[in-house]
Amino acid sequence: MCIHGGHRPNALNPAVVMPIVSSTTFLLDDVAYERMLSGHADEALIYTRIKNPSLDVVQVRIARLEGAERALVFASGMAAIHAAVMSVVKQGSVILAPREIYGSTWDLFANVLSRLGVEARFVDMSDLVAVEDEIERSKPAVVFAESISNPTLSVVDIGKIAALSRRASAACIVDATFATPINQQPLALGADLVVHSATKYMGGHSDLIGGVVAGSAERMKPVYRWMQLAGGCMDPHAAFLLDRGLKTLPLRMHAHQENALTIARHLERDRRVRQVYFPGLESHRSHSTAKSVLAGFGGMVSFVVEGGDAAALRFARGLKLALEASSLGGVETLVSLPFNTSHARMTTEQREQAGIQAGFVRLSIGIEDARDLIDDFDQALALSQNT
Fold this sequence. Notes:
By secondary structure, the chain is of the alpha/beta class. The protein has 14 helices and twelve strands.
């Protein structure tokens, strides 16, 4: 599916690689008019914001990977999250979300949608009793979860969260960016919509910005409508890069995960490291859940360095191979500090409530040689302790 889904060369279109259709607009004919007049504008080749052949290929491929009836690609992961949530909520709605959540998603829910009359409530989603109680109390329109949380890498039981949501007639939306379709398919576990930042593992080469929403045809109708009117569609050139990235996704994830486990075990033995977060370690609080709901533990490793944020900054600035950068999921190893990147809009107290201690470091483990990465981390950790 990663290689052949959505595009097969044939006599009419013999290109082995998906062509980039750069045209913004298309010649109108009776078929296009008929589809528009019958309420099926999304099936008419009229305008790239509405439909484009290059986007169609990638969307079919991702839908197959997710076991979805339909997928849409967006200009960014946040555009995808925004469209998925806005396709459900209205003024007075409640969104229930995890305390341990990506900073920009938290910002959208807590600081932007709140001004529009949509309330966000945050709960520890590993505590199913607390989730059930909060669902009963607040009657949310949306229960939003992350397959693997950013950046503490907690893993929740999506199947049980989805069941609780369904019982309360709430839409369950899952951000599966860290898991990827290789490790989890939330729709098969009962989720209503799955979202991804395609910028990350799906693209895999740190050279595109994109997002994905997938779900049933019925659930995706208002998502498509929101994309059409808010204008967050993906560019055909980005779709071409995403198509290329998807072809190697299983191979890359295997390499990411193998390296991540090796490095997590090494860091766990280092006296300069107070705590390591990786769901593949038995010491991680979500380890047993991760084993039951994930096919692999992912390529992200987080840890807390002795000496707080100042020591974490010295570690990041002392790296010689890994790169200090705010994204993740590329073939190169990237290191970021949530206090000055993804969760910078949170106060220190809010970060602590989200499980982000002082000295927190997030590693996106690439596909370099693991020994080279360990040597680099060791020398940077030594520098981190020099005040």
